[in-house]
């Protein structure tokens, strides 16, 4: 059934690259705070090394993951096989936020296709790699990526995206600090 891994090997890397969606979960330190779980897609995941991964954080209506990581660093990424043999892989670790325009962002962002809506790169130093059977995950047929976010970002333009982030990404739902550019 489940297995722990010391590192991301080539076989796992290939499997990860074949998954078109993954999930990210974080939580604030406060027991009253809201746990966050977000689906991710759009070719936004990269393996950086045997125990290091990253994903491109795209502009959205909330900023929970960034705020939680800035507060406590805890994060888990989960991949599920929706096609082919059943499998779930989880990466538990410590996440670091590299906000667009900050040191380290450009170097990490080069691991992904360009996306005008990118607001940060989240790098995860993985402390635990585990897989489980995934027998309960249903099969789904992939139809394609949605183009809504890219079209929305193009209509907004760089200035409009900065204004949107300042209005919507400065604080989490629990009031934790989000993007630094939201403080401007």
Overview of this protein structure:
This protein has 184 residues and is an alpha+beta fold. The protein is 23% helix and 32% strand. The protein has four helices and eight strands, in the order E-H-E-E-E-E-H-E-E-H-E-H. The model has no long low-confidence stretch (mean pLDDT 95).
Quaternary structure of the protein: single chain
Number of DSSP E strands: 8
Protein structure class: alpha+beta
Q: How many alpha or pi helices? A: 4
Biggest pleated sheet? 8 strands, antiparallel
Task: List the SSEs and their pairings.
Layout: E1 3-5, H1 10-17, E2 22-26, E3 36-40, E4 45-49, E5 52-58, H2 64-72, E6 74-80, E7 88-99, H3 105-109, E8 118-132, H4 148-168
Antiparallel strand pairs: 1-8, 2-3, 2-6, 4-5, 5-8, 6-7, 7-8
Task: Summarize the entry for a quick read.
With 184 residues, the protein is an alpha+beta fold.
Question: What are the main properties of this structure?
Answer:
Pnp Oxidase, Chain A, eight-stranded antiparallel sheet, alpha+beta, 184 residues, 4 helices, 23% helix
């Amino acid at each position: 059934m489940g297995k722990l891994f010391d590192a991301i090997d080539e076989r796992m890397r290939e499997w990860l690259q074949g998954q078109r969606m993954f999930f990210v979960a974080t939580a604030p330190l406060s027991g009253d705070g809201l746990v966050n779980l977000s689906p991710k897609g759009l070719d936004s995941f990269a393996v950086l090394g045997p125990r290091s991964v990253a994903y491109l954080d795209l502009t959205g209506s909330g900023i929970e993951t960034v705020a939680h990581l800035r507060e406590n660093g805890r994060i888990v990424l989960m991949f599920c096989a929706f096609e082919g043999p059943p499998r779930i892989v989880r990466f538990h670790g410590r996440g670091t936020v590299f906000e667009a325009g900050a040191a380290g962002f450009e170097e990490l962002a080069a691991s992904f296709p360009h996306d005008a809506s990118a607001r940060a790169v989240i790098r995860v130093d993985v402390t635990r790699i585990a897989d489980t059977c995934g027998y309960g995950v249903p099969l789904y047929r992939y139809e394609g990526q949605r183009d809504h976010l890219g079209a929305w970002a193009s209509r907004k333009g760089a200035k409009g995206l900065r204004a949107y982030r300042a209005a919507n990404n400065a604080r989490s739902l629990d009031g934790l600090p989000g993007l630094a550019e939201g403080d401007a």
